[in-house]
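Deliverable D5.2: sample structural annotation.
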Amino acid sequence: MKKKELKKINSNELASKLAELKKELMKYRAQIATGTPPQNPGRVKLVRKTIARMNFMLQKSSEAKKPKEVTKKVNA
């Protein structure tokens, strides 16, 4: 998925798609571990990158919801 597409999705849908992609990656890793070549080896890299993008978007959205702390600067 592209970054633009991920921005349009709300966090609940993003979390569910993230879970699906993690399951897909687990299947690919199991195939690789058993010695069976995956049907689409390039898809493994794409899934990993998409998972990273989704994690970043979820982290970014959770940080935006947190109230920012105000710290006072003390002159020493």
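Annotation notes: The helical segments are 3-8, 11-34, 41-65. Residues 3-65 form a domain with the Helix Hairpins fold (CATH 1.10.287.310).
The annotation will be released with the project's public dataset once the embargo ends.
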